[in-house]
Design brief:
The protein is mostly helical. Helices cover about 65% and strands about 10% of the residues. A hairpin with a 2-residue loop joins strand 2 and strand 3.
Length: about 160
């Protein structure tokens, strides 16, 4: 029986060794469980941060702030565009005003020309329709002359006049 007991004891092994093996297995299990728990916690934290970031972007105050920034940028672009357009239009207007000024009858008078008006006040373009004795008003740069036609000398339409006219 002793032999049987010895064999059974040999087959079972050293109980301290068995306990140590079980302890080692338990320690490994605890370590794996702790790592798994840490990894799961880390994943949950990352998910939570991502959800917080999405919520932050979708928060009405954040969206309002973003829209205000976009509106301010659009306003700056609009003001710059309006200023540029206004400057362009002002240059165009100045050029047109210069052309208009150059064509002004007053500028023509400054160059030594005059403007004649018939008895009806209409600008005279031709001798046709006028008679000797009609009153004509001649406008010069610095005033008007009231004149009376003494003679009408018709000229051909060629310009400049020739000595044969």
């Amino acid at each position: 029986m002793r032999l049987g007991l010895e064999r059974a004891r040999a087959a079972l092994g050293d109980p301290r060794r068995l306990i140590d093996l079980r302890r080692q297995g338990l320690d490994d299990f605890v370590e794996r469980a702790a790592r798994a728990l840490y990894a799961a916690t880390a994943r949950r934290r990352a998910d939570l941060r991502a959800a917080e970031a999405r919520l932050y972007r979708l928060h009405p105050q954040r969206r309002i702030a973003d829209q205000r920034g976009a509106l301010a940028a659009a306003e700056r672009r609009l003001v710059a565009s309006g200023t540029s357009l206004l400057a362009h239009r002002r240059r165009t207007l100045d050029a047109l005003a210069g052309k208009l000024d150059a064509l002004s009858p007053l500028k023509v008078l400054d160059r030594g020309y005059s403007l004649a008006r018939g008895p009806d006040g209409q600008v005279l373009r031709s001798c046709a329709g006028l008679r000797q004795g009609d009153d004509v008003t001649v406008t010069l740069r610095d005033g008007d002359l009231r004149t009376r036609i003494e003679e009408i000398i018709a000229r051909r339409r060629s310009w400049p006049p020739t000595d044969n006219s």
